[in-house]
Amino acid sequence: MARTGETVTKEELGGSDVCSRSGTIDEVVDTEAEAFERARAFLSYLPSSVYELPPRGAATDDPARRDEWLLSVIPRDRRKVYDMRRILKTVLDKGSFFEYARQYGRSVITGMARLDGWPVAVLASDPHFYGGGWTADGAIKLTRFIDFANTFHLPVVNLVDVPGFLIGKQAEMQGTMRHGARALAALYQAEVPWCQFSYGERLELQEPRIPTIPDWVTDMRGRPATGDLCL
What we know:
By secondary structure, the protein is of the alpha/beta class. The chain has 7 helices and 5 strands, in the order ααααβββαβααβ. α5 runs parallel beside α7.
């Protein structure tokens, strides 16, 4: 690259690894067939247009199913981590969790899933990265995801265990506070049903909230929608 003085290959400049970590692309697969399969799976959670509600899928999971290991999955020692994705795959309809943008903003987990067949947007934290704290990238990812859920009328299930914003010189240079404030604004401006579970020992950003739902928004059964808070 003569203009910048850098010597890089095309893959180093704009390959899948770079683009997935920068948030330019959300999903990386090996073959074209896999790409079409993932695209079909992604679209299966969404309505045909923004003027419709997401369609219900087949309810194949037993709503009375219990997994006793959940009672002890969160460690008492806040310095220890746990597998959030394993938890998500258990509390949501089996086999329904569709994660995307995994390589970007890695302390924040975003995806779609089903509950009793109904599509929902899923937010969670990954304690393996900064203890689940919000980075600049994570905050941008979260903001974009909430806007996405609002656009397609996806109720949000939010599993909260957030210690706060990442601090330090690099975090300040990246505008973590600014992007984090924008993410918090997106949370409070959400107009879809919202179910929030707070857990763990890190409660600094876990302020209970119930978003205001406009009168014209109805739930998936055609009734007026309400924001739900589950603790």
